[in-house]
Amino acid sequence: MLQLNHARAVALMVLNAALWATAGVVTRQLESAASFEITFWRSLFTLITLAIVLPYLAGAGFWSGLRQSGPLLWLSGLCWSVMFTAFMIALTLTSVANVLITLALGPLFTALVARAVTGQAIPARTWLAIALAGLGIAWMFSDQWGGAGVLQGMAVALGVPIAAAVNWTITQHAHQKGLAIDLAPAVMIGALLSCLFTLPLAWPLQGSATDVGWLALLGVFQLTLPCVMAVWCARVLHAAEVSLLALLEVVFGIALAWLGAGEEPSLRVLSGGVLVLLALAGNEWLGWRRR
What is the dihedral of CA 183, 192, 154, 244, to 10 degrees? Predict the structure, then answer.
Protein backbone atom coordinates (compact mmCIF):
# COMPACT_ATOMS: atom_id res chain seq x y z
CA MET A 1 0.00 0.00 0.00
CA LEU A 2 1.03 3.60 0.51
CA GLN A 3 4.12 4.32 2.64
CA LEU A 4 3.48 7.38 4.80
CA ASN A 5 5.43 9.45 7.27
CA HIS A 6 3.72 11.89 9.60
CA ALA A 7 3.99 14.94 7.33
CA ARG A 8 2.59 13.09 4.31
CA ALA A 9 -0.25 11.67 6.39
CA VAL A 10 -1.19 15.18 7.57
CA ALA A 11 -1.10 16.47 3.99
CA LEU A 12 -3.31 13.58 2.83
CA MET A 13 -5.81 14.24 5.61
CA VAL A 14 -6.04 17.89 4.53
CA LEU A 15 -6.72 16.67 0.98
CA ASN A 16 -9.29 14.21 2.34
CA ALA A 17 -11.12 17.02 4.13
CA ALA A 18 -11.20 19.06 0.92
CA LEU A 19 -12.65 16.11 -1.01
CA TRP A 20 -15.26 15.38 1.69
CA ALA A 21 -16.25 19.06 1.57
CA THR A 22 -17.30 18.88 -2.09
CA ALA A 23 -20.61 17.21 -1.15
CA GLY A 24 -22.37 20.47 -0.38
CA VAL A 25 -21.53 22.33 -3.57
CA VAL A 26 -22.23 19.25 -5.74
CA THR A 27 -25.64 18.62 -4.19
CA ARG A 28 -26.57 22.21 -5.13
CA GLN A 29 -26.39 21.03 -8.76
CA LEU A 30 -28.95 18.23 -8.28
CA GLU A 31 -32.35 18.50 -9.93
CA SER A 32 -34.69 16.05 -8.20
CA ALA A 33 -32.86 13.51 -6.00
CA ALA A 34 -33.89 13.68 -2.33
CA SER A 35 -31.74 13.10 0.77
CA PHE A 36 -32.09 9.33 1.12
CA GLU A 37 -31.70 8.86 -2.62
CA ILE A 38 -28.56 11.00 -2.56
CA THR A 39 -27.16 8.74 0.16
CA PHE A 40 -28.14 5.57 -1.71
CA TRP A 41 -26.58 6.52 -5.05
CA ARG A 42 -23.42 7.87 -3.43
CA SER A 43 -22.97 4.69 -1.39
CA LEU A 44 -23.76 2.49 -4.41
CA PHE A 45 -21.06 4.07 -6.57
CA THR A 46 -18.64 3.84 -3.66
CA LEU A 47 -19.44 0.13 -3.37
CA ILE A 48 -18.98 -0.48 -7.11
CA THR A 49 -15.68 1.41 -7.23
CA LEU A 50 -14.20 -0.42 -4.26
CA ALA A 51 -15.45 -3.80 -5.49
CA ILE A 52 -13.35 -3.22 -8.62
CA VAL A 53 -10.29 -1.45 -7.18
CA LEU A 54 -9.64 -3.39 -3.97
CA PRO A 55 -9.53 -6.88 -5.58
CA TYR A 56 -7.20 -5.45 -8.24
CA LEU A 57 -4.83 -4.11 -5.57
CA ALA A 58 -5.04 -7.14 -3.28
CA GLY A 59 -4.97 -9.90 -5.89
CA ALA A 60 -6.98 -13.03 -6.46
CA GLY A 61 -7.36 -13.88 -2.78
CA PHE A 62 -9.26 -10.71 -1.89
CA TRP A 63 -12.77 -12.19 -1.66
CA SER A 64 -11.72 -15.32 0.22
CA GLY A 65 -9.70 -13.19 2.63
CA LEU A 66 -12.71 -10.95 3.16
CA ARG A 67 -14.86 -13.91 4.13
CA GLN A 68 -12.24 -15.06 6.62
CA SER A 69 -11.60 -11.64 8.13
CA GLY A 70 -12.02 -11.05 11.83
CA PRO A 71 -14.60 -8.99 13.72
CA LEU A 72 -12.55 -5.77 13.65
CA LEU A 73 -13.05 -5.42 9.89
CA TRP A 74 -16.81 -5.84 10.16
CA LEU A 75 -17.06 -3.53 13.15
CA SER A 76 -15.18 -0.88 11.18
CA GLY A 77 -17.55 -1.45 8.24
CA LEU A 78 -20.53 -0.93 10.53
CA CYS A 79 -19.00 2.34 11.71
CA TRP A 80 -18.57 3.52 8.12
CA SER A 81 -22.21 2.69 7.35
CA VAL A 82 -23.38 4.75 10.33
CA MET A 83 -21.18 7.65 9.23
CA PHE A 84 -22.51 7.43 5.65
CA THR A 85 -26.18 7.44 6.66
CA ALA A 86 -26.68 9.18 10.03
CA PHE A 87 -25.65 12.56 8.64
CA MET A 88 -28.35 12.52 5.95
CA ILE A 89 -31.03 11.26 8.35
CA ALA A 90 -30.17 14.03 10.82
CA LEU A 91 -30.52 16.61 8.06
CA THR A 92 -34.14 15.52 7.55
CA LEU A 93 -34.87 16.28 11.21
CA THR A 94 -32.99 19.52 11.89
CA SER A 95 -30.84 22.17 10.23
CA VAL A 96 -27.40 21.71 8.72
CA ALA A 97 -25.98 24.12 11.29
CA ASN A 98 -27.23 22.07 14.24
CA VAL A 99 -25.86 18.88 12.70
CA LEU A 100 -22.45 20.48 12.17
CA ILE A 101 -22.35 21.69 15.77
CA THR A 102 -22.89 18.09 16.84
CA LEU A 103 -20.13 16.84 14.53
CA ALA A 104 -17.71 19.20 16.28
CA LEU A 105 -17.79 16.75 19.21
CA GLY A 106 -15.90 14.22 17.06
CA PRO A 107 -12.35 14.96 18.25
CA LEU A 108 -13.41 14.86 21.89
CA PHE A 109 -15.18 11.52 21.44
CA THR A 110 -12.18 10.15 19.54
CA ALA A 111 -9.74 11.20 22.24
CA LEU A 112 -11.88 9.66 24.97
CA VAL A 113 -12.51 6.39 23.11
CA ALA A 114 -8.82 6.05 22.15
CA ARG A 115 -7.76 6.63 25.74
CA ALA A 116 -10.30 4.12 27.09
CA VAL A 117 -9.50 1.39 24.53
CA THR A 118 -5.77 1.75 23.90
CA GLY A 119 -4.63 3.69 26.97
CA GLN A 120 -3.12 6.24 24.63
CA ALA A 121 -2.15 9.47 26.37
CA ILE A 122 -3.57 12.60 24.77
CA PRO A 123 -1.08 15.52 24.67
CA ALA A 124 -2.17 18.76 26.30
CA ARG A 125 -1.78 20.57 22.97
CA THR A 126 -4.30 18.19 21.38
CA TRP A 127 -6.83 18.74 24.18
CA LEU A 128 -6.44 22.50 23.71
CA ALA A 129 -6.85 22.18 19.94
CA ILE A 130 -9.98 20.05 20.43
CA ALA A 131 -11.48 22.69 22.71
CA LEU A 132 -10.62 25.60 20.39
CA ALA A 133 -11.83 23.82 17.25
CA GLY A 134 -15.11 22.85 18.90
CA LEU A 135 -15.55 26.41 20.18
CA GLY A 136 -14.86 27.82 16.72
CA ILE A 137 -17.45 25.61 15.01
CA ALA A 138 -20.01 26.29 17.76
CA TRP A 139 -19.45 30.02 17.27
CA MET A 140 -19.87 29.67 13.50
CA PHE A 141 -23.41 28.35 13.88
CA SER A 142 -24.54 29.61 17.31
CA ASP A 143 -26.94 32.17 15.81
CA GLN A 144 -28.82 29.37 13.99
CA TRP A 145 -29.66 27.27 17.07
CA GLY A 146 -33.24 26.25 17.71
CA GLY A 147 -36.31 25.14 15.83
CA ALA A 148 -38.57 22.10 15.86
CA GLY A 149 -36.94 18.69 15.98
CA VAL A 150 -33.55 20.04 17.10
CA LEU A 151 -32.96 17.54 19.89
CA GLN A 152 -34.15 14.57 17.82
CA GLY A 153 -32.01 15.56 14.85
CA MET A 154 -28.93 16.17 16.96
CA ALA A 155 -29.43 12.84 18.75
CA VAL A 156 -29.26 11.11 15.35
CA ALA A 157 -26.29 13.27 14.31
CA LEU A 158 -24.39 12.08 17.39
CA GLY A 159 -24.07 8.75 15.58
CA VAL A 160 -21.55 10.31 13.20
CA PRO A 161 -18.86 11.46 15.69
CA ILE A 162 -19.39 8.40 17.89
CA ALA A 163 -18.99 6.02 14.94
CA ALA A 164 -15.98 7.98 13.70
CA ALA A 165 -14.35 7.85 17.13
CA VAL A 166 -14.77 4.07 17.31
CA ASN A 167 -13.59 3.66 13.72
CA TRP A 168 -10.34 5.63 14.04
CA THR A 169 -9.57 3.87 17.31
CA ILE A 170 -10.13 0.44 15.71
CA THR A 171 -7.79 1.33 12.86
CA GLN A 172 -5.04 2.57 15.14
CA HIS A 173 -5.46 -0.30 17.61
CA ALA A 174 -5.09 -2.89 14.84
CA HIS A 175 -1.95 -1.16 13.57
CA GLN A 176 -0.38 -0.85 17.04
CA LYS A 177 -1.01 -4.53 17.77
CA GLY A 178 0.64 -5.53 14.51
CA LEU A 179 -2.51 -7.24 13.29
CA ALA A 180 -2.37 -8.13 9.60
CA ILE A 181 -5.72 -6.51 8.85
CA ASP A 182 -6.32 -4.23 5.90
CA LEU A 183 -9.24 -2.06 7.01
CA ALA A 184 -9.71 -0.40 3.60
CA PRO A 185 -12.33 -3.08 2.68
CA ALA A 186 -14.32 -1.86 5.68
CA VAL A 187 -15.22 1.20 3.63
CA MET A 188 -16.75 -1.14 1.02
CA ILE A 189 -18.67 -3.00 3.72
CA GLY A 190 -19.94 0.30 5.07
CA ALA A 191 -21.11 1.36 1.60
CA LEU A 192 -22.96 -1.95 1.17
CA LEU A 193 -24.75 -1.60 4.51
CA SER A 194 -25.61 2.01 3.72
CA CYS A 195 -27.14 0.97 0.37
CA LEU A 196 -29.24 -1.74 2.01
CA PHE A 197 -30.49 0.65 4.67
CA THR A 198 -31.32 3.66 2.50
CA LEU A 199 -32.82 1.97 -0.59
CA PRO A 200 -36.22 1.27 1.01
CA LEU A 201 -36.33 4.87 2.27
CA ALA A 202 -35.32 6.29 -1.12
CA TRP A 203 -37.79 4.21 -3.18
CA PRO A 204 -39.11 5.10 -5.70
CA LEU A 205 -35.95 6.63 -7.12
CA GLN A 206 -36.63 9.98 -8.76
CA GLY A 207 -33.20 11.35 -9.58
CA SER A 208 -32.49 12.42 -13.15
CA ALA A 209 -29.61 11.10 -15.26
CA THR A 210 -27.73 14.31 -14.46
CA ASP A 211 -28.27 13.73 -10.75
CA VAL A 212 -26.95 10.18 -11.01
CA GLY A 213 -23.88 11.48 -12.84
CA TRP A 214 -23.14 14.00 -10.11
CA LEU A 215 -23.66 11.37 -7.42
CA ALA A 216 -21.34 8.97 -9.24
CA LEU A 217 -18.63 11.63 -8.97
CA LEU A 218 -19.39 11.98 -5.26
CA GLY A 219 -19.23 8.22 -4.77
CA VAL A 220 -15.79 7.98 -6.35
CA PHE A 221 -14.08 11.24 -5.34
CA GLN A 222 -15.99 12.42 -2.26
CA LEU A 223 -16.32 9.05 -0.49
CA THR A 224 -14.16 6.28 -1.97
CA LEU A 225 -10.87 8.09 -2.43
CA PRO A 226 -10.75 10.14 0.80
CA CYS A 227 -12.17 7.39 3.03
CA VAL A 228 -9.59 4.83 1.88
CA MET A 229 -6.80 7.41 2.24
CA ALA A 230 -8.10 8.24 5.74
CA VAL A 231 -7.71 4.56 6.69
CA TRP A 232 -4.07 4.72 5.52
CA CYS A 233 -3.48 7.96 7.44
CA ALA A 234 -4.90 6.46 10.64
CA ARG A 235 -2.01 3.96 10.60
CA VAL A 236 0.41 6.86 11.15
CA LEU A 237 -1.52 9.58 12.96
CA HIS A 238 -3.07 9.49 16.42
CA ALA A 239 -6.80 8.83 16.32
CA ALA A 240 -7.54 12.24 17.87
CA GLU A 241 -5.27 13.90 15.30
CA VAL A 242 -7.17 12.26 12.42
CA SER A 243 -10.45 13.47 13.85
CA LEU A 244 -9.12 16.99 14.32
CA LEU A 245 -7.86 17.25 10.75
CA ALA A 246 -11.20 15.91 9.48
CA LEU A 247 -12.83 19.03 10.98
CA LEU A 248 -11.32 20.99 8.10
CA GLU A 249 -14.20 19.58 6.06
CA VAL A 250 -16.48 22.15 7.70
CA VAL A 251 -14.23 25.08 6.78
CA PHE A 252 -13.60 23.83 3.24
CA GLY A 253 -17.30 23.13 2.80
CA ILE A 254 -18.17 26.73 3.60
CA ALA A 255 -15.54 28.05 1.20
CA LEU A 256 -16.65 25.78 -1.65
CA ALA A 257 -20.31 26.68 -1.13
CA TRP A 258 -19.31 30.36 -1.26
CA LEU A 259 -17.27 30.01 -4.44
CA GLY A 260 -19.31 27.35 -6.22
CA ALA A 261 -22.88 28.06 -5.14
CA GLY A 262 -22.87 31.73 -4.16
CA GLU A 263 -23.62 31.02 -0.47
CA GLU A 264 -21.70 33.88 1.13
CA PRO A 265 -20.86 33.14 4.79
CA SER A 266 -21.44 35.64 7.58
CA LEU A 267 -18.69 37.32 9.57
CA ARG A 268 -19.50 34.94 12.45
CA VAL A 269 -18.85 31.93 10.20
CA LEU A 270 -15.59 33.37 8.88
CA SER A 271 -14.26 34.22 12.36
CA GLY A 272 -15.16 30.76 13.66
CA GLY A 273 -13.44 29.16 10.67
CA VAL A 274 -10.27 31.11 11.41
CA LEU A 275 -10.31 29.80 14.99
CA VAL A 276 -10.63 26.22 13.71
CA LEU A 277 -7.70 26.69 11.32
CA LEU A 278 -5.53 28.24 14.04
CA ALA A 279 -6.31 25.37 16.41
CA LEU A 280 -5.37 22.73 13.82
CA ALA A 281 -2.27 24.57 12.62
CA GLY A 282 -1.10 25.17 16.20
CA ASN A 283 -1.51 21.51 17.12
CA GLU A 284 0.49 20.37 14.09
CA TRP A 285 3.23 22.98 14.60
CA LEU A 286 3.71 22.13 18.27
CA GLY A 287 3.77 18.42 17.43
CA TRP A 288 6.36 19.01 14.70
CA ARG A 289 8.59 20.99 17.13
CA ARG A 290 8.36 18.21 19.72
CA ARG A 291 9.31 15.54 17.17
Answer: 30
